[in-house]
C-alpha cells in the first residue's frame, strides 16, 4: 500500500504538484482515481510546463457524469489545445451539456481552441472600460471595485489570460490615479442613515435585534437567487446519474412540461401543518412561482393509518392561507396501481426480492444482509402476489430493493403488509409502499423538475436516482435544504395529540402551539410567516430559532397593518366630576398615527371612563409616571389631563372608583408625565393571553427535560380575562387584527359569537423580557 | 343615570362570567364522562376494535383476491360456476370495502321475485342500516345500497345493477355469460359446482336387521341415503356408503340354537333356509316357551361373541341368507351399499368403553355405566348392569372407528326422526370424549314415518307391516296398468314397455319419497304418485322423453348437437328462453344448498320448475317449423340446443334422485 502511495505521489509530483499537494490529493479518493486514469491516458506524452497542472485541474473539476469523456479532454490538454483553466472549465461545461452529441468543431469553438488574445487586445479593452467609469474611479479612487471592471473585460475577451488582465488593470489604474495616498488607506466612514421617526409621546414599537428590517428580502427574491439546475439540465447537477436512456427520457419530459419548473409540496395527510412546513411550502411554491413554473400539492398518503378528512382539508386551507394556490392537488395513492406494476418489474429484473426478516433484524448498525436476497425471481413474484392478496401476516414479509444507501444501509424496504383500510383506496390494498419507494416514483410520474426536500433525505438521494433509473423512467433532481426547528415547542403530531388528550391544550389550533392553524388563530399574519421563511433562506444548514424571532416578524408586519384601538384589560372606573359637556362626546382616534392618510375612527368620551387598573396608584413609587393622588396623567387622544379628587373603596379596601377633575392639556398647570389609554361607553371583550407552553428550550430533549415533554408544560400558559374595548371593534371579523394601544397586538378569535368578542393576544409591543 | 348604566354593565359582565363558568362546568363534566368508562377497559376495547378492523380488512382483501382469481378466465373447467356463490363473494367484498368498520355484516343474496327488478338481489342494506342505528349512526338503507353497488367489483356475470325500494341492490344477469356457461355443457357435460375441498364422507343408511324382512320403514332410509350419496359423489367427494346392519345381539343365540337343532350338519352342508322370516318366528316361539332352549340360546350368544368358529359359521350362514334377500331389494331399487354391521365393532366396543372409563367420562348408576352429554338430560348407557353393550356403545365405537381409523371428515346418519335425540346424544358425547372436533361435520338426516292413505301407520290390510318386496311388486303392477290405460302397450315394443314399467314403478316410489320435506310424515299413495300431472315422477319422465324427442325430430344425433354447439350459441334472446336459461343456470346453486341442508326435495322442486319453464318456452318458441305436409322447413338450432341442455340437466337431476329415464314411453 505505502509503496503504491509513494509511487502515486511521485507521479503526481511529476505533473507539477508540490509534494504536500500530492499528499493532500491522495486523501481524496475520487480525485486520485480520476487523476490516475488521466495520467495513464497521457503517459508517454511529454507534458510541457503547466500542462500537468491543467490535467490536475481537470481531475478536480470534473463531474462523474462526464467521466467517459475525460480521455477526450485530456487529449486536448496534452496537445495544448486547451491551455488554460478557463478553457478546461469550458470543456467540462460543453461535454456536460453534450454528453452524447460531442462534435469536435463545436467543442473547439466553444472552448476557444486556437484563439490567441494579444496583450494589445487586452490593453485596448481595459482602456475602454476604464474610460467608461472614469469619473467614479476618480471619486472613489482605490475604493473602486476593480473586480467588476475586470469581469467586463473578461466578458469581452473570454480567452484572455486572467493574470494578464489583472496586471494590465493595475497598471492603467496606477497610471490614472497615481500611487495611493493616506486617505486611500483610511477606514471608510459608514453611511449613516439617520432615521427620523415621528416622535410619539406614547410608547412605540421598539426596534430590537430581532426586528426584521422592512427592506428584507421577500421569498421571491430569495428564490430567484437560487442556483438550481434549469429544467432539462438535470444531468448538470452533481451526483445525478446519467444512463443510456437519460437523454431520451429528458426529451419526453421536456415535451410534457414545456420546459417549465415543476415542484410539489408533499405533506403526509395525517396531521396538521406546523411552522416547519411553512418553510417547505414557501420553498416549493416560491421556487415555482419565481421561475414561472407550477407547484402541486401532493398528499403523500401511502400510510393508511389515521388519515382523516379534516387533515386533508386543513392542509389545503393552510397552503392557501399562506397565499399559494396549488396548480393541482394530487395523491400518492393515485399511483398505487402503477407503483405495484413497477414493483413487479423490479422483481423480474432481479432488483427487488421478498424478505422475511423482521423489522428488528433489519434495524440497528450494520444488520446482516438478508438471507433471502438471492431467492429465485419466480419465488419473489409469487410471494409478492401473496402479500398483495392478503396471504401474509403483517410483518411476515416485505419487498426490498437491491440497493445500498449512502450510509451503508442495505436494501431499503419498498412495500410492507398493513391490514388497514386506506382513506382513498378502501380495501383495495393491504400492501403499502414506503417513502423510499414512493417518493421518487411519484415525482417522476408528475414530471417534477426539482424535488426539494429537507437535509435528512440526503441519504436517500442515491436510492432515489437508482430506483428511477432501474425502472428506466424520467429521473428528477433532488435538492436538499435545512430543516427549520423552533425552540420552546413540539411539532410532532403524536406529541400534539398527546397534549390534546391530556387537556393541556384544547385542539390542534390552540394558539399556544406552533401548528400553522394555531399561529393563524393566534393572529400571526401569513405574510409575516412568509417573510420569516425568506429571511431563513435556502441553506443546507438546519436552522433552529427562538419563537421571538418569528414574533419580531409578526410585530413588524402588524405595526403597519393592524389599526390602533383603545382597550383596557383590567378596567378601573374613573368619574370626571367636572366633565365639561352635558352628554357624551366623541374623540377622533387615528388608525395609524404614522399614516394620517389611513383614517380615523371615533370613540365616545363621557363623564365615566375606564383606565387600566395599573395606570393608577394611590401613592406613586419612584419612577411611576402615571396617575396617583398627587400626580396627574394625560388621556390619549382626548386632550385632557386628570387630577384625582377622591378615591372610592369597597369594604375590602379595594379601589373601585377614582373621582377626578379634568383640565384641557393646553391649560394644565404642569405637563403630565404620561398619557394613558382609556375607554368610555365600551363593550366588554374576552381577552386570551398566552405564555410559552414549555419552560425549556428543547422540551423533547431528555437531557434538558428528564421527565418528558409533558412534564415541561406551563399549565398556566393560558389566561382569560374580560376587558373593555372601544365600540369601534364591534364590526371586527374573525382573524381581524388590532393594536391595542400600549398593550400589544390582538386578533379576533373564531370563538367570537354575537354575545362576546374574543381576542387572542398575538404578541406584545415589545419582546417579552427574559427570553 | 350613570350609575344605572354602570350597574347594567356590571350585571352584563357577571352574566357573561356565569355563562363562562357554566360552559367550563359542562366541559369538565364531559371530560369526566368520557374518561369514566375506565381507562383499562377503553384500551382493551380500542385494541380489539383495531384488531377487528385489521381482520375485516384482511378478509376483504382475501375475498377480492378470490373473486379475481375466479374471474381470471382460468375457470376451473371441471366445475360449473355457482351464481349465488359468486354474487355472495362479490357483494361481501363490496360490503367490506364500503363499510370497513362493520363487524361481520351479513351478505344476503336472494333470487328476485320479479324479473323486472333483476334476477338476483342483495338485501344487506337494511341489516347494515340497523347495525349502524345501534351504533348511533343514521344512514339511510338506500344510501347504503348505493354505496354497496359502487363497490361491487366488475364481473362478467353482472350485466347491470340498480338500487330499488328501501335499498335492495338488484342484479341483472348478463345473457352472454349465460350463453357461455350453458354452451359449455355440450363440451364438458353438466358439471357440478366447485367445492371448498374434497371430503371423505361416510353415509350410514338403510341398515336393516339380519334375519328380519326389510319393510317400508327401511325404504325411506334407503332411498334418501342413496340420493345423498349420489349427490355427494357428483360434487366430487369421496363417499363411503355403509350398511350398518343389525347382525349382533341376543337374537342370534336363539337362531343359532334353532339352526343347530334343525340342520345339525350345517357346518358341512349349507342349510336350505328359504324363508328366514318363518325360521325366525319358529325360533322365537321356542325361545319364549322353552326355558331350556332359552338357556342354550344365551350360551350360544356367549360362544358367538367369543368368536367360536362353529358358532361364527352358523351366524355367517344366517347372515348370508338375509343378505341375499336384501340384495334383491337393492338391485331392484338400484342401490349400492357396503355392509359393515354391528358385529364388526365388538372388539372396538370394549376398547371404547375402556377409553371412556380412563377419561373419567363414565358414571356408575345402579350397576350401569352411563355417560352424560352436556345439556341433555338423558344419559347414554354404555355398559348395562349385566356387562352387556347397547346401541349407545356400538354407535360410540362406530363413530370412533369412522373418525380415527377410516379418517372420515363428514358422517351422515340417515334414520327416522325418532332417533334424533339418540344421535344428538351420540354426537355430543363423542365431542365430549374428544372423538369429534369442529373440523368434522356430522349430520343426522332424519325423516318422518310412512303413513297409509288413511293417514295411519302404513300396514297391510291384515295389519302386518308391509314387506318391501310386496310393495315393489304392487308398484310394478300399478305402473303397468297406468301404461296400458294410456295405450302405451300398443305403441312400445315389449322391451320398451318393460323398461318403461320399471322406470315408472321404482321412479315414482323414490320420487314420491324424495319430493316431500323429509322431516314430515309422508303418505304413501300409488294413486298420487302415478298421476301424470303435477310434481310427480310420471310427469317428469314424460316431459323428459318429450324434450329428447325434439332433437330426434330434427334428425340431430347427440354427436351432431355437440358439433353444432361449437359454432352456434344457445339461444337466450326470447323472454321465455331467458327465463328457462336462468333456471338452468341455478343448477349449481341448488346442489350447494342441498349439500348444506341435505334436503333433497329442493332438487325435486328445481327439476319440476325446469320442466314447467320448459313447457312455457316450448309453447312460445318454435324449435322446428314444419309445413302442412309435415316437412321440416326451418330448424332453430339455438333453441334445439337450449332444449338439449335442459334435457342434460334434467338427466343429471334424475340420476341424483335415482330416476331412470327411458327414451320412449
Automatic annotation (TrEMBL), chain A:
> What are the protein's GO molecular function terms?
ligase activity
- Annotated Glutamyl/glutaminyl-tRNA synthetase class Ib anti-codon binding domain residues: 562-662
Q: List, for all copies, the residue spans of the domain called Glutamyl/glutaminyl-tRNA synthetase class Ib catalytic.
A: 260-559
Coiled coil stretches, renumbered? none
Which residues belong to any copy of the Glutaminyl-tRNA synthetase class Ib non-specific RNA-binding domain?
6-162, 165-251
Q: Which SUPFAM superfamilies match?
A: Nucleotidylyl transferase, Ribosomal protein L25-like
Instruction: Give residue ranges for domain tRNA synthetases class I (E and Q) anti-codon binding.
Output: 675-749
Which InterPro entries did the record assign?
Answer: aa-tRNA-synth_I_CS (IPR001412), Gln-tRNA-synth (IPR004514), Gln-tRNA-synth_Ib_RNA-bd_2 (IPR007638), Gln-tRNA-synth_Ib_RNA-bd_N (IPR007639), Gln-tRNA-synth_Ib_RNA-bd_N_1 (IPR042558), Gln-tRNA-synth_Ib_RNA-bd_N_2 (IPR042559), Gln/Glu-tRNA_Ligase (IPR050132), Glu/Gln-tRNA-synth (IPR000924)
Alphabetized, the UniProt keywords read:
Aminoacyl-tRNA synthetase, ATP-binding, Ligase, Nucleotide-binding, Protein biosynthesis
EC numbers listed for it are 6.1.1.18
Give the superkingdom in one word. Answer: Eukaryota
What is catalysed by this protein? tRNA(Gln) + L-glutamine + ATP = L-glutaminyl-tRNA(Gln) + AMP + diphosphate
Q: What is the top EC class of this enzyme, as a single word?
A: ligase
**Family classification:** Belongs to the class-I aminoacyl-tRNA synthetase family.
NCBIfam families the UniProt entry points to? glnS
Q: What's the protein called, per UniProt?
A: glutamine--tRNA ligase
Q: Which organism is it from?
A: Nicrophorus vespilloides
Automatic annotation (TrEMBL), chain B:
Q: Which Gene3D superfamilies match?
A: Arginyl tRNA synthetase N-terminal domain, HUPs, Isoleucyl-tRNA Synthetase, Domain 1
List the coiled-coil residues.
4-38
The protein's Enzyme Commission number: 6.1.1.19
Q: Which gene is this protein's source?
A: LOC108556793
Q: So which residues are the signal peptide here?
A: none
The family database entries (InterPro entries) matched by this protein are listed as: aa-tRNA-synth_I_CS, Arg-tRNA-ligase, Arg-tRNA-synth_N, Arg-tRNA-synth_N_sf, ArgRS_core, DALR_anticod-bd, Rossmann-like_a/b/a_fold, tRNAsynth_Ia_anticodon-bd
Domain named DALR anticodon binding: residues: 540-665
Q: Which Pfam families match?
A: Arg_tRNA_synt_N, DALR_1, tRNA-synt_1d
**What region holds the Arginyl tRNA synthetase N-terminal domain?**
85-173
Q: Which UniProt keywords apply?
A: Aminoacyl-tRNA synthetase, ATP-binding, Coiled coil, Ligase, Nucleotide-binding, Protein biosynthesis
What is this protein's record name? arginine--tRNA ligase
What reaction gets catalysed by this protein?
A: tRNA(Arg) + L-arginine + ATP = L-arginyl-tRNA(Arg) + AMP + diphosphate
Do you know which PROSITE patterns this protein is assigned to?
AA_TRNA_LIGASE_I (PS00178)
Could you say which protein family the record assigns here?
Belongs to the class-I aminoacyl-tRNA synthetase family.
The question of whether Aminoacyl-tRNA synthetase is a record keyword is answered with yes
Q: Name one GO molecular function term.
A: ligase activity
Q: What is the lineage of its organism?
A: Eukaryota, Metazoa, Ecdysozoa, Arthropoda, Hexapoda
